[in-house]
Amino acid sequence: MKFRLTLLIVFITTILRAQTPSLQNSPFLTYAHPSSVGMSPERLERIDNMLSDAVKRNEIPGVVALIVRNGKIVYHKAHGSADATTNRLLKTDDIFRIASQTKGITSTAVMMLWEEGKFRLDDPISKYIPEFAKPQVLDSLLPDGTYTTKPANKEITIRHLITHTSGLGYGMIDGDPRFKSIYSKAGITDLFSTENISIGESVKKLAKLPLHHHPGEKYTYSEGLDVLGYFIEVVSGMPLDEFFKTRIFDPLQMNDTRFYLPDAKKDRLVSIQTKKDNKWIPYPVTFYDPDYPIKGAKMFFSGGAGLSSTAKDYATFLQMYLNGGEINGIRLLSRTTIKTMMSNQVGDLRGVNSGSDYGLAFGLVDANGQAQGGRGSEGTFEWGGYFNTQYFADPKEQIIGIIMKQTQALFGDETSWKFKQMVFQAVDD
Length: 429
What we know:
alpha+beta, Beta-lactamase, 17 strands
């Protein structure tokens, strides 16, 4: 009994440290007429027609889109089907697998712990997960599946992991077939799973494998945020799903954002669809089971790709950032921390004149990107997910755009770039 009481006290104390009252008090998102926040109703109708037409032309099976300006929802519509088998119509509160949009939430959790002085960003990850000590870089993959390595010239740091510069790969979606083979042979669990495996088990296997390159040398999209999901568990002493719920989702009232959905919400999960003979069909089981959010062991908390959410929930998360880290009088992050997170952390490693920089798990529109047009102001942060969900948030214009679909192996879908481009043409102030 004494032990349980001590754990409860530690848990409550930890929660209170993370969720502090703020001198600011920004309201939760509410709906408003577009004209009240400088958005043209007629130009928003162009977006609505574009999305509706895409469904009618069979370009996409269905879509939910949401636009926020100055903390007010000015557009929130659903078009098309949520399920190819039942022909259930999409609803605005339906739940989508957001995949890599999970990364921004994991980074938020990391930086909340950083604000508490738990670690430094340039600490080696081996300080907290010893299996990562003395990393090796791939030299050559031999015909029999074995490989040779050479010692990395430095340790992997927490910053490397957040910024995809660690040298880790991404298994089944890795651009290098050698790493697909190596990860598969090692039994690495990628992205999503219905198996009874913890993220800690997978990360410890990953730590033993070779790197693409020396840490900090290149930008290579990776499982770094999955490593940091386990790192959060190590540093906080809490399972990742519980950390997210108590420290982020509950304060933000993101009640539909979870790794795994309860039975009461499973009917709102949108099916993953693909096209065959010009008809929409359920996407089959491949290296993952599409029903992973509602079936199986429900034990794999992927910090890089595991969450499901709604458009409104994720918009609330982004609005917290536009508010400088606060919402409803609760502060999750300092605006000074957010300034660091939204600063270019990788130099030119994503390419010169690409129009994009990269912060702490957020893509950033740079001056070149702003000049290209249709991407928002310099400093707009953005990303997307494996199943065709995308978001962007423009701090200067105080605009959030979210578009959500659930598709795979699909070609000819132009709705995402059109949506982003057309959101900014609707500004009328």
